[in-house]
Design a protein that fits this description.
heterodimer; A: alpha/beta; Rossmann fold; 7 strands; 15% strand; globular; B: mainly alpha; disordered N terminus
């Protein structure tokens, strides 16, 4: 049986788009279904690492490490060579346009680009997507990306509908699932529990869980398609 | 049943770090001076004692240094895209002064 470690970079050259929130929520969803997850925190703010430490996060199949970007490749090899390697490695980068962002993307199986439905966020998202295309072209890779519209307003105001229509017009590949602005995502930083681990029956918690499950399903599809493409 | 492990990411882009560095340099993408230079720190089930780690108390120190030394400090900070404070702290650390990694913030941002 072959064990494959998949690397997903949550990438944006802009801060405040919800990278760390997504990392934590995704890790919770993946861990909930039984995946061993390892998060590499490349952000000097150490948001994820601090979350993990402060709340003594009690998820046996989740680990977090902090590494210098220059050591990323070696660290990934080390993680994959572990006796019980994780099935998913999530990389949380700093919200800055810098070398580490490209280094992380180059070592990924999938790049998720979170963005709020706003022009500044989408402008930066497109910059990251262009760089990924350039990386793929330069090195003969075919690392896929998916834009994730994050902090979406449940009331769906006009500007939001327009922005989402623009994403479609520009031909950007995105998750069908929208990540809405929901309290459980924010609360994870206060109680250490991603939506899947909150154990709450509140409607907002259940909706957050359903969103994360849908995103995980879409990730599976993209990674599955990517496998077929590479095999060909 | 034998178990073999494949490392998928390396098959995606078969570029060495040096090739990536050259690519990044060609594009003119800036590189921050990351404070973490030690091996990766894996965190597994931290002890409750590690939960609260207050930031170090800062104390202002005023020094009179030769102008050419100050100029060099500023030059180094500019080329490394970090703060002058970080240049000084790095130099102190390299001479054996104990400085926690948590306090080695290269770009002056506060920990959120």
């Amino acid at each position: 049986m072959q064990h494959i470690t998949r690397v997903i970079t949550v990438a944006s050259s802009k801060g405040g788009v919800g990278k760390s929130t997504l990392c934590i929520s995704l890790a919770g969803a993946l861990a909930h279904r039984g995946d061993a997850v390892h998060i590499i925190d490349l952000d000097e703010n150490r948001t994820v690492l601090r979350w993990f430490r402060q709340h003594n996060v009690d998820l046996p199949c989740l680990s977090v490490s902090q590494v210098a970007p220059a050591d990323l490749l070696g660290h990934l090899k080390e993680v994959a060579g572990h006796a019980n390697p994780p099935s998913i490695v999530l990389i949380d980068v700093a919200g800055v346009y810098e070398k580490a962002l490209l280094q992380a993307m180059a070592r990924s199986n999938l790049v998720i680009v979170p963005a709020q439905p706003s022009e500044p966020d989408l402008h930066e998202a497109m910059k990251v997507i262009r760089d990924l295309h350039e990386l793929n072209d330069s090195f003969g890779g075919h690392i896929p990306y998916r834009l994730l519209l994050n902090m979406v307003e449940p009331l769906d105001p006009h500007y939001q509908r327009h922005t989402i229509a623009e994403v479609a017009r520009l031909g950007l590949k995105r998750f069908e699932t929208l990540m809405h602005k929901r309290a459980p995502y924010r609360e994870a930083f206060l109680n250490g529990k991603p939506p899947h681990q909150s154990g709450e029956g509140r409607v907002s918690a259940l909706k957050a869980v359903a969103e994360m499950d849908a995103i995980v399903q879409e990730i599976d599809k993209v990674l599955g398609a990517s496998d077929i493409q590479e095999a060909a | 049943m034998s178990t073999s492990r494949g490392f998928k990411p390396l098959a995606s882009i078969a570029a060495s770090d040096a090739e990536l560095d050259a690519f990044v340099a060609r594009k003119g993408v800036p590189a921050l001076n990351h404070a973490v230079s030690s091996p990766a720190v894996a965190v597994q089930a931290p002890s409750p004692l590690a939960l609260v780690k207050p930031p170090a108390v800062l104390r202002r120190v005023t020094l009179d240094l030769p102008e050419y030394v100050v100029d060099q400090l500023h030059d180094r900070a500019r080329s490394a895209r970090c703060t002058t404070r970080h240049v000084v702290m790095s130099a102190l650390k390299s001479t054996g002064v104990t400085i926690n990694d948590d306090d080695m913030i290269s770009d002056g941002r506060r920990l959120r």
